[in-house]
Specification:
Length: 364
């Protein structure tokens, strides 16, 4: 591919080497070493949040927060997400209950949550999809009223702020993914950010086999620890995150300039009071001279990658067909968007010339 849909940000080679060099002396490569501690502290600062618990990836962080809160029964969630969100719920032995999304920003529609609540509902797991913030106030009100936990899959929302408050502050806990393809990464990695100190302590124990001290285990934990090399990459990338997001904005703004106002092309509007991270550039083709799949093919002919993100919906997956809650037709807004949406290439360093080239192909 000449231009791929994404490209990982990297620190300067020597910056990373300098960061990992001390590990050759310490020989302390994982199990909460110096880099792990430093990365955690820096993220607490960045998120303005009391606790950050690092994980080896974002998906396991989701599974561990579900079990740390001892959630049972059903979790109300969105099907317009990456497989991980739904899989985490199911793999913990719970049933995902799929709620439709809003037409304007593709996040879970809070006005459709209450009708899905049953005596078995234990939580709401919403996704700040494409870095668009969920309606946190309404979700919070519903959760309070029905005594439900709120967990945000904030995998797309690193660096996003709403009314000046970092995305990590909302809900009982938020999961961030630091996968190589995300706005911010530690190669693989992720975390739970939470102001709930009790659950943070449980997560720290559970991710290391449930061990306290050297031998005894207080829970049947697994192994989901982040190692020192991941943490070192995270520390390096965090130094440059503001600049990287600024570069993404340049490419994003060029797309908006070229594609907004074109008949049949819908660009989701910016959210009021939200400082965005320009993580993705989703475009909905609705009544354009080419449909979504034709645009993908056309771009592929020019060696340019674009992604049907998200298609199919997770409630259409083969592995969930047996669930009573399955079926894309039950979430019609999400169903329609999934058929029409395309995410165009967007990463730090994608030049304005390249954006122009992509837009020329689509528009001509
Ligand atoms: C990337 C992603 C995850 C999973 O994160 P990993 O770090 O890759 O395990 C979960 N949810 C969403 C919405 C994602 O985009």
């Amino acid at each position: 591919m000449k231009i791929n849909v994404t490209r990982s940000s990297m620190p300067d080679f020597n910056e990373y080497i300098e960061e990992i060099a001390p590990l050759w002396d310490s020989r302390f490569l994982t199990n909460g070493g110096v880099k792990h501690k430093e990365f955690e502290n820096r993220l607490c600062g960045y998120f303005s949040c009391d606790n950050v618990v690092l994980f080896t990836n974002g998906h396991l962080a989701l599974e561990y927060i579900i079990s740390a809160y001892r959630l049972k029964g059903e979790i109300i969630t969105t099907p317009f997400t990456f497989a991980s969100t739904t899989h985490a719920i199911y793999r913990c032995g719970l049933t995902p209950v799929f709620c439709d999304i809003k037409k304007d920003d593709y996040t879970i529609d809070p006005d459709k949550i209450e009708e899905l609540i049953t005596p078995d509902t234990s939580a709401i797991m919403a996704v700040h999809v494409y870095g668009k913030m969920c309606d946190t106030e309404k979700i919070n009100k519903i959760a309070k009223k029905h005594n439900l936990k709120v967990i945000y899959d904030a995998a797309h929302a690193f660096g996003v702020k709403k009314d000046g408050i970092p995305s990590a502050a909302y809900g009982d806990a938020s999961m961030f993914s630091f996968h190589a393809t995300k706005v911010f990464h530690s190669i693989e990695g992720g975390c739970i950010a939470t102001n709930d100190g009790e659950v943070a302590e449980k997560l720290n124990t559970a991710k290391n086999f449930g061990q306290i001290g050297n031998a005894d285990c207080i829970v049947a934990g697994g192994n989901a620890k982040m190692n020192e090399f991941q943490a070192a990459m995270g520390i390096c990338n965090l130094r440059h995150i503001d600049k990287e997001i600024e570069k993404r904005k340049t490419a994003h703004d060029k797309y908006v300039e070229r594609l907004s106002g074109v008949e049949g092309i819908i660009i989701p509007a910016e959210q009021k009071g939200v400082e965005h991270n320009y993580s993705y550039f989703p475009v909905v083709f609705d009544g354009y001279k080419l449909n979504r799949d034709e645009v993908i093919e056309l771009l592929a002919k020019h060696d340019i990658g674009a992604r049907r993100y998200f298609y199919p919906l997770t409630n259409e997956f083969e592995c969930y067909r047996h669930l009573p809650t399955a079926g894309g037709e039950k979430t019609p807004v999400a169903y329609e968007i999934s058929r029409k949406v395309l995410t165009l290439p967007l990463y730090a360093g994608l030049s304005e010339d390249e954006v122009n080239e992509i837009c020329d192909i689509i528009l001509k």
